[in-house]
Structure formats: structure tokens, C-alpha cells
Amino acid sequence: MITISLCMIVKNAEDTIGDCLASVRGLVDEIVVLDTGSTDSTESIVRSYTDRIYRFAWIDDFAAARNESFRYASCSHILWLDADDVLLEEDRGKLLELKQTLSPDVDSVTMIYHYAFDEYGRVTVSLRRNRLIKRENGFRWHGAVHEYLAVSGKIEDSGIVVTHKRRHRQGGRNLAIFERKLENGETLTSRDRFYYANELTDNRHYEKAAAIYRELIEKNDGWSEDLLTSCGRLADICEAEGDDEEALRWALHSFAYDIPRAEFCCRLGYRFLQENRLTQAVYWYKLATELRKPEQSWGFFNDACWTWLPHIQLCICYYRLGDYPEAYRHNEKARAYRPDDPAVLSNKALLEGAFPHVFPPS
Questions:
Q1: Are 10 and 146 found together in one domain?
Q2: What's phi and psi for 310, nearest 5 deg?
Q3: What region holds the Glycosyltransferase 2-like domain (predicted)?
Q4: Which candidate, 170, 261, 247, places its Cα nearest to that of 213?
Q5: CA–CA separation, 113 and 129 (whole Å)
């Protein structure tokens, strides 16, 4: 059976670190925490779980901090989490089983990351990340911001989910790091430029962000998943500026990188729905419902587009087309995902009330 060192970097995480560490209690063999400058009660909370806490002077470099935390690990494998991540009970069981059964020839294990949630607690953004690695391989982190763990060898994709429980946003922290790097004359990689554009977008510097996204796409510079996301971000910016034709162009350009993704199908469906071009809207929304989400992909996914959203939009489309049984059927599919959604319940009541002979109230 493998042994696991949990390695973390933290700062002012008193609101979340206790839940994180409690969620892995009994699963990991040692806990290593690198504190990058906490001024709250983070350290005292951590010490109730481990005495392996070390201080590290912050140098605007997440990869450097994570690599330093790995340096203190002594077990056969390293697991990394952020202070606002947890393992839910089902995933605790899966990790315990993995710990007992993992083949010695596996170099890295990926886990699903549930990153964001809607008002009902259902996942809206998910992705996959390397989470558990063989320590002896010496895998390293790269990138000052939005760092990534470079791995090689045999990689196993697990069904374990790490759940993100963010309580506070970091504001412009990451943007400031990028801009200090540029002020110091550093050259950003294509990956850094992509994430710099994302930070610019999140902080509403849309024109500057759009210029970077366009440059990445025009030069085909970067990972295909990043270029796909760039298409979506550009479409968002164009729509916000009222340039619907340019938004459509960028949505269609996403097909250059992969078969249609549900996110772009829903975007196209919405465009045609707004224009009351219902047959075209139905085509794109229906395609979104028929696609299989690429579970092994490392890109970001808007889970709403792969689950309930196209169904509720198809309900609207079919209602306007006068096909009330299809409208009801798709609304029921949406209700399976969001049973308490007021819009879904309103649609249900409307259809059952207007056509009681077709849809007897349930």
C-alpha cells in the first residue's frame, strides 16, 4: 500500500483550512503545510492537525512555493490540495480504496475538480488535474500564476472528486503578479498570456484581454483547450460590446479545434432564439443534449450546458413552435437536474394548466 504526504501552501486561510484538513484526516500519512505569510489564526488551526508547518517568504511565484512544499514530503506519494478544497465522504472512500490498490507503475493520478457551483449546489465548472504523484519522480511545478504540475509516465484517471469550497475571491492579486512580471521585462509564455488575458477579463479590462486572445488564436499559439476557451471569451466580450456578428464568428471558430462543444452549441442556440429563428435554435440546443462530455479532457467545462440548460431552452423553443408535448418533455428533463428551479416549475405549471388534458398535474 502506498503512503501519502499531503502538501499545501496557505495564507490567511482560517475560514477553510480546518474543513480541508478534517476531510483528509485518516487518509494521508503526513501533512506538510507551507505558510506564505498568514496574519490570522491559520497556523494555530494547522497545528491541531500537524506540526509539519513551515514558513516561506512570498516571491510572487506559486510554482516556487509548491515546489518548496514538496521538498518536505517523505512518503511514497504526494497529494496536493488548496486550503479551500475538501474531499466529500464518497471521495474519501474512493481515495482510501485507491491508496490500497494503486499499482506501483502509476506515476500520476488525476482527479476531477468541481470548481464552481450554482445556487442549488450543483456543479457549474469542472476540470481534471494531476493530484497524486509518485514522489521519487521529482515532478515539478511551473508558472508563477495558474501554475501547473508537469508529469510524465503512466497516468491513471480516477473518479475521485476534489470539491472547491471558495469563500473569498482574491480580487486583482493574480493580475498584479502578471503586471509586475511585465514591468520587470519578463517574457510571458503563451500559457501565461492566456491566463493574463483571463485575469484582465475578470477585472474588466476587456479591450486589452481581447487583443491577447486574438493574437493567441491568429498565431495558433498555445494548447487547443486554451484556444477554445479564448474563442468563448472573445465571443463574450463581443456580445457585451453589442457586436453580435463578431461574437458569432468566434463561436464558429471554436470548431477549428474540436468537434462542437455543448458550450458553443448553447451559445449558437441562444443567438438564433433571440432572433426568433426557432428551427435553427432547436438544432443547436438539441445537438448540445446529444453530445457526450469528454470526461478525460483537461479543459474547463460549463456543466450547465452539458446538463439542464439546453433542455430548458428547448422547452421555450418548442412552446413557441406550438409543439407542447416536446416543450413539456424537455422541461421535465431540465427538472431532473434542477427540481427546485423557479423557471422550470413555472414552465411545468404553465403547460399543465393550459393543457390539462395532455399534461395532468403531477
A1: yes
A2: -65, -30
A3: 5-132
A4: 247
A5: 7
Beta-carbon count within 10 A of 136 CB: 9
CA atoms within 13 A on the CB side of 42: 22
- Digit-coded pLDDT (tens) for 220-277: 999 999 999 999 999 999 999 999 999 999 999 999 999 999 999 999 999 999 999 9
CA–CA dist 286, 306 (Å, integer): 11
Measure the CA–CA gap between 114 and 96, rounded to whole angstroms.
19
Do 18 and 140 lie in a common domain? yes
Taking CA atoms, 97 is separated from 5, 90, 158, 269, 305, in Å, by 16, 11, 11, 43, 32
Q: What is the pTM of this model?
A: 0.89
Phi, psi (degrees; rounded to nearest 5) at 302: -90, 100
pLDDT tens sequence across 75-99: 999 999 999 999 999 999 999 999 9
- Final residue before a domain boundary, out of 130, 164, 198: 164
What whole-number distance in Å separates Cα of residue 350 and Cα of residue 312? 14
Q: How far apart are CA 66 and CA 176, in angstroms?
A: 20
